[in-house]
Amino acid sequence: MPQPDLTLKAPLQQRWANLPAAWRRALACLAIAWACNVALFATDWREMFLQWWDSSTYNHVLLIPFILAWLISLRWREVVKLEPQAWWPGLVFFGGAAFLWLLGTFAGLSLATQLGVVLMAQASAVVLLGPRVCAGLLFPIAYMLFLVPAGDELIPFLQTITAHMTMALLDASQVPAHIEGVFITTPGGYFEVAEACSGVKFLIAMIAYGALVANVCFASWSRRIAFMGLSIAMPILANGVRAWGTIFIAEHRGIEFAAGFDHIFYGWIFFALVMALVMVMAWRFFDRAIDDRMIDAEAIQANRLLSALSQYRIGPPRALAALAALALIFSGWSAWAGRLEAPMPARIDFAPIPGWQQIDFTPQVPWKPLHSGASHVLLGRFRDASGHVVDISFALYAAQADGREAGGFGQGAIPLDSGWAWERSAAPLAGGHAERIQAAGPVHRLAESYYRSGPLITGSNTRLKLANIVDRLLLRTRSTAALILSAEDGVPGQPPAEASLRAAIAAIGPVEAWMDRTAAGR
Question: In what residue span(s) does the Methanolan biosynthesis EpsI domain sit (predicted)?
Fold first, then answer.
């Protein structure tokens, strides 16, 4: 008797009709679960899609759904031999993913919320397909993590690495240069290793590409790990060469020519050559034949651990209902907590600083810290009788959430694309987070940031987020205040920035008390 055609070459309707009833039921339930995931957490999926579409850093993610379909097709002939089953321990993973999403909403951390919804999609597959099928589809399910647009957090680190590699190459090529943070000065000009020059775009894409090649082309784990190491190292090294090449060309042909060459050659051709080089270096070590099976259904079926885990069954309708209940509980919790906001005064003003007067705000280079979503924002310049000059930025938030995070990425003293960039960390003067920043000129600033929420006073963004999370979990309303004390350095006729900040801190007294007086309003 001829066997039904279960391969992906058959027409869709025929493939569905030929599937065993257990598979049709499991896939229908999974489709419902994923549709509900997208509907219930539509905001997070929409934000992810906009990042895939609008940000060149994440344009490659648009290919991930097609790659996932291809990866499943490579395993389908074997996977379909396994029997799917609803598995109740998977609900623990789903609950954990939903709790991560909840914490992300409380902290205003989009990375956590987006990771949470993708993990919930993965956990839904574990719940509705069971341990054996998920073992067969382990890599495609895991590869779904690349749907999460993550990596911008690496930009400061990559900027620093690129700047130091560039300096080493300039020294080797006998080009005199001086570095301050991510700013490099040569006889030919003044250069910044900006966010766009960090190489994060190529690194993220290469990690996703490297993981795919490591799984498809290698069978040995040692070779897979070595290839992943190459896929991470090469784009970082290549970006250092790119930055050096741009400066080296500028020394000989001018900055305008170097900028155009960088956009055309390095932007489109250079990294394609690097990717090709990675493949050429790894080609001879590929150890998976093109006709090898990606998985062995018989081995999965005979695995004792998977057999033991498969005993914990649950009916598909009950599993689907449990998934829906957990999703609704956590989304409802988030909605309830999200409506809680601390009362805000109608107006706030800087609390008096003994011996200091507010003067016109006239910085050498425009500087305006970013406090997105704050209910009140103050920015002013103060001077004392000794000539110390300090700029103060203060923001008061009714709540912390996505889009209004006191310590979020790009918030505070160094807004993205503001002309200011991080130079180096500095020793805190009063328990805050201190850093030196720089703008073209060069113009230097010393800035120290503080956060205040309830009894907490800290310079740590992590401690602030943890406090905000606890408040939301307990449905407790507390305002959050952010304070930045800053001073320009090297201004003729003015004391050094550190001396000015020390004088201001001494006059202010306990920082937390002054922040409370400013936040009290009138």
Answer: 323-510
Give me the residues paired with residue 439 across strands: 420, 443
Determine the pLDDT at residue 356. Answer: 96
Q: Are residues 452 and 380 in the same domain?
A: yes
Residues 371 and 326 in one domain: no
Domain count, the chain: 3
Residues 403 and 489 in one domain: yes
Q: Tell me whether residue 19 is in a domain.
A: yes
Q: Would you tell me how many other CB atoms lie within 10 Å of the CB of residue 439? A: 21
To the nearest 10 degrees (0 to 180), the angle between helices 221-253 and 200-217 is 150
Same domain flag for 316 and 265:
no
| Integer Cα distance of 393 and 412 in angstroms | 9
Domain membership flag for residue 296: no
Is residue 86 a contact partner of residue 383, using CB atoms and an 8 Å limit?
no
In the prediction, which pLDDT does 149 show?
94
Q: What angle do CA 441, 442, 445 make, to 5 degrees?
A: 125
Kindly list the distances between the CA atom of residue 216 and the CA atoms of 67, 77, 225, in Å, as whole numbers in the listed order.
12, 16, 13
243 with 385, same domain: the answer is no
SS3 (DSSP) at 483: strand
Q: 518, exposed or middle or buried, with CB in 10 Å at 0-12, 13-18, 19+? A: buried
Q: What stretch of H or E contains 75?
A: helix 64-79
Q: Cα separation of 86 and 310, whole Å?
A: 9
How far apart, in Å, do the first and last CA atoms of the chain sit? 87
Tens digits of residue pLDDT in 265-319 = 666 678 888 889 999 999 999 988 888 889 899 999 999 999 999 999 999 999 9
Asked whether residue 190 falls in the same domain as residue 309, the answer is: no
**Residue 368: CB partners within 8 Å, gap ≥ 6?**
379, 393, 415, 418
Closest CA to 140 of 150, 120, 125: 125
Task: Report the chain's C-alpha Rg in angstroms.
Answer: 28
Q: Which residues of the chain have pLDDT under 70?
A: 1-17, 256-268, 522
Q: State the Cα–Cα distance between residues 396 and 145, nearest whole angstrom.
A: 35
In terms of residue numbers, what domain contains 68?
12-149+303-338
Burial class for 289, CB neighbours closer than 10 Å (0-12, 13-18, 19+): exposed
Q: Is residue 351 part of a domain?
A: no
For helices 64-79 and 110-136, angle between their N-to-C axes, nearest 10 degrees = 20
Distance from C-alpha of 445 to C-alpha of 429, rounded to nearest angstrom: 14
C-alpha–C-alpha distance, residues 443 and 449, integer Å: 19
Q: Do residues 174 and 273 both lie within one domain?
A: yes
Cα–Cα separations (whole angstroms), residue 502 to 335, 389, 451, 457, 494:
43, 11, 18, 18, 14
Query: Considering only CA atoms, which of 16, 387, 365, 74 is closest in space to residue 217?
Result: 74
In total, the chain counts a number of residues equal to 522
Which uninterrupted H or E stretch holds 161?
Answer: helix 155-172
Kind and range of the H or E run holding 238 = helix 221-253
pTM (predicted TM-score): 0.84
Asked whether residue 224 falls in the same domain as residue 167, the answer is: yes
